[in-house]
């Protein structure tokens, strides 16, 4: 009797608990669903407003200038355009409106622009009234910036719906500096969601296409810059690079991109997913059709105003002596890092670059990257030292870009099942793939503790020292390296998910904090594709298969080469890039 009352009570308590839990769960699910739905509505409106604004602008500008006038402006490179504007040949307003028209027609094809920067018009008008244009080294030059650059009264969402209409109170340092130099920031460009993939888009603004093949990706995360500049809609743009986001889209879109040493250009006022990384050193950098424009940009931006606005930037002006150096350099070259085997077109591009640089008088010597796998372990462990907490946090209530889903799933995977997981990943890939299993176990590892992180940082310093010890050689020390910017060239978007296989060539120089830039050298030929048919990679695993499949239909697409120098030798890196481009010519 007593027992049965007790068990009855127990049942009631249990039932109530179950009921409460279910109710609570339902409320949470419903409220998340509602939040997400509200966000989606907001996103749709945000996109529609912007489309409308661009359409109106296009119509307003339609009859302002003749086709010939526009063609004349669009036919100039940045250096020519600035000097024409300084001489009063074209007003800054006319240049701006011509580029607005061109950029909007680009975005209709590739979806590369997220917003028009409306204050540009007032700025161009003001410049037009100035009596001494020669004091502005970038006079009247329209400049595009990646969406994550802070601009007063505009939002910078990094592809997150919850950040819509969260307006910046001020311009970021780079934009302030650009304006002080007479440049006219005129559009913001698309990026991959939270800038944490090499794909092209996000659920808020959609995907961006490659201007050379609309069904293919332009690469990321500075995808909009790649597509816009590659499509002729901007002469100079700025991206960000944490693993390859400037150099990779440059490579895929056939343009030049430069990642300087960290702390030479100011990051202040930019929006990013993970503030606080030390050895994963995000940088900003210029992207353009030619190296001359990159040089013009770096030379002008490294100015007293930037050093004043951001006291943590090394106050080191552009080193003309280093840039102007004409002595033959010893340059190491490699076509393969031994980890991700590049497709034949990419290897051929490096060999072409080697010949070209030899013709320009440099000494090229074979080079082998020391222990890329170690660099990879360090990069991943440091990049996700928090077990991906921050990534997961900012993606709450958001629609997650399909390209990011595999990464996020791994970050959520219970660590206790990690070992089993690696085993299953091995099985699923049919082939034995130690690197894919390791990738998995690096990502399912939860938050590392402080001693582990300090240890990783210390080991990174060791790796850095070891890396540069290989530049000391009996026949003479190396001044620079050339190599692939990626194992792949442009292909269908869906092949650009497995970040590790795509990123090893660029992320290495983020870990090492080297200046590095990409120069277009050739285009994929049918012979490259015929050779690709026998490609098996180094592991014959799913990543290798993906690399091959991604590039199978790439005839005619651009192929770049990466140039690298020691930290703080940014000007020397630009020198090598310029020599390379001079001998290759503009593609
Ligand atoms: C030898 C080193 C090999 C490293 C391979 C690392 C794989 C990491 C996998 C996944 C991590 C993906 C996160 C990095 C993407 C950054 C893209 C970027 O630059 N965003 C610019 C934002 O400013």
User: What's the helical proportion of residues?
Assistant: 40-55%
Q: Provide the spatial order of strands within the biggest beta sheet.
A: 1-3-2-4-6-5-10-11-9-7-8
User: What is the CATH homology-level superfamily of the largest domain?
Assistant: Amidase signature (AS) domain
Q: How much of the residues is beta strand, in percent?
A: 5-15%
CATH architecture descriptor name of the largest domain: Alpha-Beta Complex
Domain tally:
2
Q: What is the name of the CATH class of the largest domain?
A: Alpha Beta
Terminal-residue CA separation: 92 Å
Structure classification: alpha/beta
GO molecular function, one term: fatty acid amide hydrolase activity
Domain Amidase: 95-574
EC number: 3.5.1.99
Pfam families: Amidase
Overview of this protein structure:
Its EC number is 3.5.1.99. The active site is at residues 146, 221, 245. Pfam families: Amidase. The chain contains 22 helices and eleven strands. It is α/β, with parallel strands linked by helices. The protein folds into two domains: 49-370 and 478-584, Amidase signature (AS) enzymes; 372-469, no CATH class. An eleven-stranded mixed β-sheet has the order 1-3-2-4-6-5-10-11-9-7-8, sandwiched between helices. Strand 2 (142-146), helix 6 (173-180) and strand 3 form a beta-alpha-beta unit. Helix 7 (223-230) runs parallel beside helix 8 and helix 13 runs antiparallel to helix 18. The N and C termini lie far apart (92 Å). The mean pLDDT is 93. It binds (Z)-N-(2-hydroxyethyl)octadec-9-enamide. (Z)-N-(2-hydroxyethyl)octadec-9-enamide (5YM) is lined by residues 195-196, 221, 240-245, 272, 282, 372, 375-376, 379-380, 383, 499-500, 503-504, 507-508.
